[in-house]
Amino acid sequence: MNAYATAAEMLALCEQEKISISELALRREVEMTGLSREEIFAKMKTYFQTMRASIRHGLEIRTPSTSGLSGGDAAKVFDYAKSGNALLGEDLTRLVAYSCAVLETNAQFGRIVATPTAGSSGIVPACLVLLEETRGIDEDKLTQALFSASGIGIIIAGNAFLAGAQGGCQAEVGSASCIAAAAIVEALDGTPERACAAGTFALINTLGLVCDPIGGFVEVPCVSRNGMFAVHSWLAATLALAGADPRVSLDDAIFAMRDVGRRMPRELRETSLGGLAICPGACKSKLKN
Amino acid sequence: MNNTYSAFDIIGPAMIGPSSSHTAGAVRLGLLARGICGGGTAFYPNILIELHGSFAATGEGHATDRGLVAGLLGLPPDDDRLKDSLKLAQANGINIEFRKVDLGVNAHPNTARITYLFPDGERLSVTGASIGGGSVVVREIDGFETELNGELDTVVFWHMDRPGFLARVTGLLACIEVNIAAIQTTRRMRNSEALTIIKIDAPLPPDCMSVLRKIPFVRRLLAVPKLP
Questions:
Q1: N or C: more exposed end of chain B, with fewer CB within 10 A?
Q2: Which ipTM score applies to this complex?
Q3: A residues 75-94 near B, CB within 8 Å?
Q4: What topology does CATH give the domain B153-224?
């Protein structure tokens, strides 16, 4: 039996079986679906390859999207990363470029993998591909890390939400940052407990993020936000790997995210009725189109 | 507490953007309508697509129109021909007209009604909603209320409401050991036209369809494959 509904239960199972979160998530999927371990792993591996391709595709984009609200920034950040003078250093600047690239691909009808949603689909792929390039981690291990991400994602889905319409951007980009941070830690051989700490650091620092995209398009602020919050995941993993203590559990962080989401006014939950969506400049740019 | 989310509810689906509900969901709705209309076996050149609520308001930017048409053409949600689906339909001699409509307060904000206009003047309409994350549900077929979501293989019977109809169908399915997950029957009124949807755990063997068609009072029968 590999069923769990909370992070506490998940950690107890990992401890009992002496396995990682990713291994538990994989066993659970086998048990739930009746499919073979190989079939499930192979499907996840194609998703990883699609993620990598969505980054490459996005870095080539030089033209604006149909709405004119995105296009070309990922390429600019990527060039800046290689300039030798990047403020954040080359690697982390590339991380930003990769995450933006997926969202630009998404805005221009390219193929992406929702992780967990289309609007937050840059963060997990960017973090894993940067690990591949900078740490030489192989495709199988990164595929395994996607199960670390899903293993924590199902707890968020079951106890809070993943849709901006339900919980605001904290439910999308917050959740994506949380599962990406945990995946980074497990990919670097951190313990399940440290992976949860990383997820907790990511989630408690995204609480309150609203979903107010201009014109209802998944572009402003979504493209830059994915870029910036990929770094946020990296920082959360850094805190956890250093041994820092988030002082609250992952279950508490998820509880808080749900509480904040429930109190969030409808206008700020993917309705385009508040925030950036109604700022005077946004209305003007909409009129132009 | 029970948690039934799959790893692939979190990671996935692979899709063409920009929106899981407005683009990927639209493709899946188109695919279901295609199945309900008889899929690739027939050629119906005139289709009316009515968009309601958020589908009407922000559908264009999210390529809801192109997504629906991609589905009607049988393309999966991650096929990158999606962006050219309107041209692809045109090249195949299919005329598609779009209209913005108000289907009332009870309709889900992301609703589309797809009507096939047959050359003999007959129509077939499918009304469905994209309810989030790419999940969809067909709420109505030809005015009959339904709950068809494409998660399982489904057979759809257009028939007359007569005693013993369901017994005959289920009896036949029992003979070939087809497991039924759910049955839904709706009728205009007693003794009149009815629609029955049967969700099953595996696709029906193709030779079984001709036998099911021989059941008295079946006017039309279609197998709708489960969604990718």
A1: N
A2: 0.94
A3: none
A4: Alpha-Beta Plaits (3.30.70)
